[in-house]
Design brief:
Helix content: 55-70%
Radius of gyration: 18 Å
Number of domains: 1
Shape: elongated
Keywords: Coiled coil
Order of helices and strands: HHHEEH
Largest sheet: 2 strands, antiparallel
Number of strands: 2
Distance between the termini: 32 Å
């Protein structure tokens, strides 16, 4: 009986996780903005993964995944940095 309850609880956890993934997919497919909580999670995880990256190439790929565009002003200073938190970024960083 206890084993059955344990299996059911594990299945419930897996289904809840899957439901969250599906909600994120729908949200991204509809072009809705990313909720602040998810954005915050992604950025925290980005910092951890970036610091843990061992090679320059890994860091470059990670930055390219998250930052598709950087613009500079006339004085050659950074004007804007565009972040792209899409399905691929969420999957990669929150796996």
């Amino acid at each position: 009986m206890a084993e059955r309850v344990k299996k059911l609880n594990e299945e419930i956890d897996n289904l809840k996780f899957r439901l969250d993934e599906i909600k994120q997919d729908v949200m991204l497919a509809e072009g809705e903005s990313v909720p602040f909580e998810l954005e915050s999670q992604v950025m925290k995880k980005f910092g951890q993964v970036f610091k843990a990256s061992s090679t320059r190439q890994q860091r470059k790929q990670l930055l390219n995944l998250l930052v598709p565009k950087v613009t500079i002003d006339k004085s050659r200073a950074i004007d804007t940095i565009e972040l792209q938190i899409n399905e691929d970024v969420i999957r990669y960083l929150l796996k």
